[in-house]
Each structure stands twice: as structure tokens, then as C-alpha cells.
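Weekly modeling sync, notes
Attendees: S.R. (lead), two postdocs, one rotation student

Agenda item 3: backlog of single-chain predictions. S.R. asked that every request posted to the team notebook include the full sequence so nobody has to chase files. The rotation student volunteered to paste the first one in as an example of the format we agreed on. Action items at the bottom.

Example entry:
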Amino acid sequence: MAAGRPKQFITLAGEPILLRTIKTFISTGLFESILITSPASHLEQTQRMLAENGLQNRCMILEGGQMRQDSVKIGLDALPKGTHYVMVHDGVRPLVSQQIIKNCLAMAKESGAAITAIPMQDTIKSIRNHYISHTIDRQNLWRAQTPQAASVNLLQQAYSLAAEKDFIATDESSLLELLNCQISIVKGSEENIKITVKEDLKMAENFLRQETGQLRIGHGYDAHRLVEKRKLILGGVDIPHAKGLLGHSDADAVVHALCDALLGALGEGDIGQHFPDSAPKYKDIDSLKLLAEVMKIAQAKHCHVNNADLTIIAQKPKLASFLPQMQKNLAKICQVDNAAINLKATTTEEMGFTGRQEGISCHCVALLVSEP
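Predicted structure, as returned to the notebook:
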């Protein structure tokens, strides 16, 4: 993925991929325990992610092994006593549906083991030395997915036999095949993709957009007068300047424009309706706190930020060096990757009130996506 971090922590439509996956399994109400095997280097990040989303008591985090097989064995050994069935799922298959999960578990209870898979649709070629050797009959070929479910006893037997034979498998059904036991097939979905390369991430985003069926666009604009004896706060950054912006709050025109764009997309009026300048509690308030309140409104409406584009208009001071920190501040509260918040600064070539350095303004366009 070349993302600089494990792919399960990459954001998909406003949430880490792993978090989306976990939430889907919790939402089924079928599981007594959820165990997550994590790289040792990211145990703390996994714990923090769960805590921030109130899921720390719903999941157990374990340090994983070198290979998938090792990690699953660690999880299998940590299952609570008396667990009858176990389901294994790739953390980077976040679009698995509740129905697929339910079907797979029901089939495993009926036959002892079941995997999710989809029939092969492409023509399959066997290759030797970069040339086609022959065509493989695809009639009985299926592509294995997860979840894969089995009785705990069966999977433990499979792992014991694999250890004896020094057998390495790429999924649990391959281990179960060593026992010559019956493994049922549950039809999966083309949407239940494993996010492995960048193209997969784009495909997942497209699937989510199709599911939600609704994109919401909003525009925001704000302007404040520059005066003496006021701090200049833009995007939550205290910028050294002889003058600052005048307003009831900290007069952060950047945050106000973003708030208005989000409220516009939500059909919730404007910032003045929610945080009136007649209310003493908003006197000199940090506008990032107002943005956090707007995000609560978005979450209540099951909407998340897809991206936002802001243009700051100021003759002085020069803002380029402050934009990265503004971006981080806004992205953190909007719960998106930094790249989802685009910030630009420009002048009006000394024309108009911004050109005369009487004030600073900001335009913002924001795109929200509604959850299913």
C-alpha cells in the first residue's frame, strides 16, 4: 500500500479499516468474544483506537505472530473456555455484510466448518516461464474469502496435525482439509474485498458510496475585520501578526467557514443559529470546540466527512508555513486523514477589503457521505 503504516489503520470513508470491520461483527450480536491479533509495534495504537470508540471492553487485543497461521493460533489458544465455535476474519475486509456473517456461522453449526467464497468468473491460465501452459477448467473453482468458521475442536485438531506435518496454510480451510472433514461453502460477495493494494481502497470507497446512495455538499464563507489587540487565530493556529480578527469567539474565519460548509451539507442552517454571538458562553471560545460540536451533529445524522477544500484570502501575513498545522487540527476533529482537508491561501493583489488588509476571509466546500 506504501501508506507508511499497516493497512488496517488506513482510513476508509472516515474510519480506520479495522474499526469498520470490528463494528460490523459487533453489530450482529452473535459473538461473546472478539479477539484481535495485532503487530507488536501497533498494540498501543489498536488499544487507543478501541478506547476512543468505546470498544475497549468489547475486544481483547493480542500480539500476533509472524504469519497468519501463527496469529490465528494465538487467538485460538486465547478463546474463553467453553467456546464452541470460532470465526476467523481478515481485519482488512471491512465490507463484509451481517448476512454473510450469519450465514457462515449457521452453516458451520450445521456441518462443523464453513467458509465464505465466490465462484470464479474469469478464465484461469496456468503459466510457465511467463508463457501460458494451459487453461484450467473454472467450473468448480471458487475464490476463498473470510469469514471462515468452524467448531473450536475441529480447528484445534487441524492445527495440531499441521504442526506435526510442518504444514503452512494461507487460510483456515486449508488446515481443515488435512482432517478430510466436510467444509461447507457459503456464497460471499464481490464487495467483500480484501484491501491489499491502493486500487482495492478506491474500489471499497466506491462500494460504500453506492451503498449510502447519498452525497451531501455544503459551501461555507466567513470574514472578520482585522483589529489591534487581538490574536490572529486561523485553523486553530496562533499566527504572529500585528493585528487579529474581531469577533465574539476567537473569530477563526477558517474554522467558521468549515463549520458553515458542514452545516450547509447537513441542512442545519449556519453557525450563527447554533452558536449565537449573543450567548456569553461563546465569548472568546476556541472555534475548534465549535467544529467538534458540528461534528456531533453530523454523527447524529449518520454522516461523515469525505473531504473539504478551503481557500483563505489574506493579503498579509503569509500563511503557507502555517497550513500544515491547520490541516492537522481540522482533520483530527473531522476524524479524517490529513489529506482529506485541503487548504490554500491566496491574496487579492491588494484589491478589496482583504487587499487593503482590513480583514481576512475564507471559502470552504465540504462533501459529506451519509451512512446506510
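Discussion: group reviewed the output briefly. The chain has a mean pLDDT of 94.
Action items: rotation student to repeat for the remaining queue; S.R. to check formatting next week.
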